[in-house]
Amino acid sequence: MTSGAALHWRALESLYASAPINRMFQSTLSVTAEGRARIVFQVEPDVFHAAGAAHGTLYFKMLDDAAFYAANSLVTDRFLLTTAFNLHLSKPVRGGTLVAEGHWVSGRRRVLVAESRLIDEEGDEVGRGTGTFMRSRIALSGLPGYSAV
Fold this sequence. Notes:
Number of helices: 2
Distance between the termini: 14 Å
Pfam families: 4HBT
Structural class: alpha+beta
CATH topology: Thiol Ester Dehydrase, Chain A
GO molecular function, one term: acyl-CoA hydrolase activity
InterPro entries: HotDog_dom_sf, PAAI_dom, Thioestr_dom
Strand order of the largest sheet: 1-2-4-5-6-3
CATH architecture: Roll
Domain Thioesterase: 52-125
Mean pLDDT: 95
Keywords: Hydrolase
Largest sheet: 6 strands, antiparallel
CATH superfamily: Hotdog Thioesterase
Strand content: 35-45%
Number of strands: 6
Number of domains: 1
C-alpha cells in the first residue's frame, strides 16, 4: 500500500516531467524522502557558453529545482514559488551527468528554506545554492501535471 506522502512525491515527479521547460533538458526528478529531492541531468554542448562549459543558468535551474522540490515535498496543497535564491558556482562543467541534491532546512507554514548542491561525475561539488520558497495561491491539485503515476 502506498502512503499519502509517497503519492504526493510521485505526483510532484509527474509535475516536474510535465513542465514545458523540462522538455529542453535530459533530466529526471526523484523525491527520495520527506524534504529531499534529487535530479539527474545530462549536460550536452547545446547548454555551453562561448568558452565551452555549461552556462550558469543551467546551474541555477538544477539547484533551484532540487531545492524547490525538496521543500514542496512537505507541502501537499499548494505550489511553492521561489522568492530568493543564492547561488555559488565552484567548478566549470564540460559535459556528462550531474546530480542535484536538495534538502529542506527550515519553515513549514508560509515560507520554507531549502539548500541544494550539484555534483559532477567525479564526485566533486560544482555548485551550491540556498533558496527561499513561499506558498502560492495555486492549488497543486489544479495543475494538469500533478498526478500520481
